[in-house]
Task: structure prediction
Amino acid sequence: MEDKTIISKVAVFGTGTVGQTIARELVTQGYEVTIGTRNVKDSMSKTEPDNWGNQPVFKLMAEFEELKLETFEDAKVDKQLIVLAVSGSYAMEVLELAGQLPESLVVLDVTNPLDFSKGFPPSLFTDSTFSLAEKIQAKYPNIHIVKSLNTMTNAIMVNPESRTDAGNVFVCGNNADAKERVTLILKSFGWQESAILDLGDLTGARGMEMMMPMWIRLFQVRGNANFNWKIVE
Amino acid sequence: MEDKTIISKVAVFGTGTVGQTIARELVTQGYEVTIGTRNVKDSMSKTEPDNWGNQPVFKLMAEFEELKLETFEDAKVDKQLIVLAVSGSYAMEVLELAGQLPESLVVLDVTNPLDFSKGFPPSLFTDSTFSLAEKIQAKYPNIHIVKSLNTMTNAIMVNPESRTDAGNVFVCGNNADAKERVTLILKSFGWQESAILDLGDLTGARGMEMMMPMWIRLFQVRGNANFNWKIVE
Result:
C-alpha cells in the first residue's frame, strides 16, 4: 500500500450525535479532524438539543480547541477520509455541497436510507436491489465508499470494549485498500479483528441498510438502543 | 385460554427442506401431522433431490407411517395450526388452493418474500412499508398469522439445543393467544424462553423479512448457513 494508507486528516460530515461521537473519538486519538456542516454560523448558534436529542455542536468545539468546524466544501480539502454521518436523506445533497472531492478519497459511509416523511417508524427509500452506498459510489466513481457502523447506535461504534459482548461490525466496499484503512480505524475504536465481518463488495450494503427496520423495531420493543447484532454459530 | 390452546393437529404446507424439517420434528413429538402439497402423486413420484437440494418427500413419508401427505385443501381440514413453509412467492396462491380455512386457525408463517426471477441472490418482492405476513393477514382477517423462524436455516429452527450458541428466534403477530401457542411450539423445539424475542404485532414482520438480504450475504461470504442472529448487550 502507498503512503496514503496512513490516514491523519479526516472530515466528519454531520453535526448530529453520530458525527459528534465519531469526531470526538478521532480527535481524541490525535487525528486532525474537521467537522463539515451546511452553515458554520447556524451550527454554532444552536445552544439547545434538537428534536432528536442531538447536543449542540458548540459544546464539542469548546471541549477540543484543535477541532475545526467548516462548510462541507472547505472541510473536505486535503482530507484522506470523509466520514459521512448525515441523515441518509441528505447524503447526496451534502456530497454535492462539498464540490469536487479529492481523488481516491475514502468515504466511510455510516448513513441509513431512512424516510421520516410519514413519521416514526421511518421506512427505507431504498429496496433490496440497490443501496444508498451504491448510489453514492455510482455518482462518484473516483472515490472509495466503504459502508460500516450503520447497524448500531453511536455509543457502541466507538466504544465496543465497554460492552459485555460487543457483537459484530460489518464492512463492505469495492476497493480493498480503502476497506483496509477503514478496518484499521475500526480497530482503533476498539473492535477486535474477529468481530469485524467483511461482507465483500459494496452490494453488501443492501443487506446492511435493510437491517434498519429490524433494528428500529428492536429499539421500540426494548425501549433503548443499547444492543447490537452478533452472528453466532 | 380456551381448549384450542393445546394444539394436536397440524398441517405443514410445503414439501421442501423447511417443511420436511418442521414436519419431522412435529411428528416425532407426537403431533398429528399432515403435509400439504399441490399434487400428492407428483410429490410422491419425485425420487431425486431437486435443484435446491430438497430431498424427495417420499423418504420422509416412508420413515413415519403416521405422517400424511394431502392436497392443501384436504390437509387444512380440522387443523388448529398450519405451518406455512412454502416459497414466499407461492404463499398467497397456496392459501387460495387450500380454500376455506378453519376459523381462528393459527398460521405459523415461516416464509420469506424472495424473488428469484433475476437469479441469485434473490431480491425481495416487499419493501419496508409492508410484509408478506401482513399481506396474508389482510386477505384472511379471520385467521391468526404469527411470523417466526424465517430468519434462520431449517436445522437451527428445530434443534437450537445442539448449538454452541443458538442465538435468538423472533416472533410477532396480532393475536396474543396465537402467539402464545406458537411460542409453546418454539419451546418444544428446544428454544429457551430468554432466546425468544417478541416483536409485538405483525408489523414486526417487516423487519424480520428484511433481514433476508443480510442473511443471504452472510451465507455467500461464509459459504454455509450454519449461523444465526443474536441480540447482545
Summary: The CA atoms of residues 151 and 208 of chain A lie 7 Å apart. The two ends of chain A are 34 Å apart (CA to CA).
